[in-house]
Amino acid sequence: MRVRRPSSRRPSVRKVLVATDRSASADRAVAWAAELAERYGAELVVLQVVADGTGEAERELAAFASRVTEAPARALVVEDSDPSAAIVRVGRQEAVDTIVVGNVGMSGRREFLLGNVPNRVSHNAPCTVVIVDTSSQARRR
């Protein structure tokens, strides 16, 4: 049996998608994704999924995206009632290499009915998914 050695090249990351709801915990995932994009010289796509109305959210997110990284960045706001499906769909449409999401999100009945967003993204995405520990304890470490 022949054993294949891992390649010594670093993985290629050209485009990183990060999903945010603009909460403090999501901002930690955005910062992590921004650092990843800068490190690899990749484009950063900051995505916000809203239930309705994208106009003002898009302007605010564009300003936010330009502040968080020195890497090329752009904002994208999509309207969808299912955040995980929207994140996966945008990941496919944008042909991203990596999707970054935070681990803090929905809880209670909504999570029970729809499933955990990071979990659903990780099981359905066509690329690498990084789930960042965005809990308040992660910040204290």
State the low-pLDDT regions, or none.
Answer: 106-114
Work out the strand percent. 15-25%
Q: Terminal Cα separation, in Å?
A: 44 Å
Number of strands: 5
Layout of helices and strands:
Layout: E1 15-19, H1 24-40, E2 43-50, H2 55-68, E3 73-79, H3 83-94, E4 98-102, H4 109-114, H5 117-124, E5 128-132, H6 136-140
Parallel strand pairs: 1-2, 1-4, 2-3, 4-5
Helix pairs in contact: 3-5
Structure description:
- 44% of the residues lie in helices and 21% in strands.
- The radius of gyration is 16 Å and the shape is globular.
- The longest helix has 17 residues, at 24-40.
- It is of the alpha/beta class and 141 residues long.
- The termini are far apart.
- The protein has a 5-stranded parallel beta sheet, sandwiched between helices.
- It has helices spanning 24-40, 55-68, 83-94, 109-114, 117-124, 136-140, and strands at 15-19, 43-50, 73-79, 98-102, 128-132.
- Residues 106-114 have low confidence and may be disordered.
Salient structural properties:
single chain; 141 residues; alpha/beta; five-stranded parallel sheet; 6 helices; globular
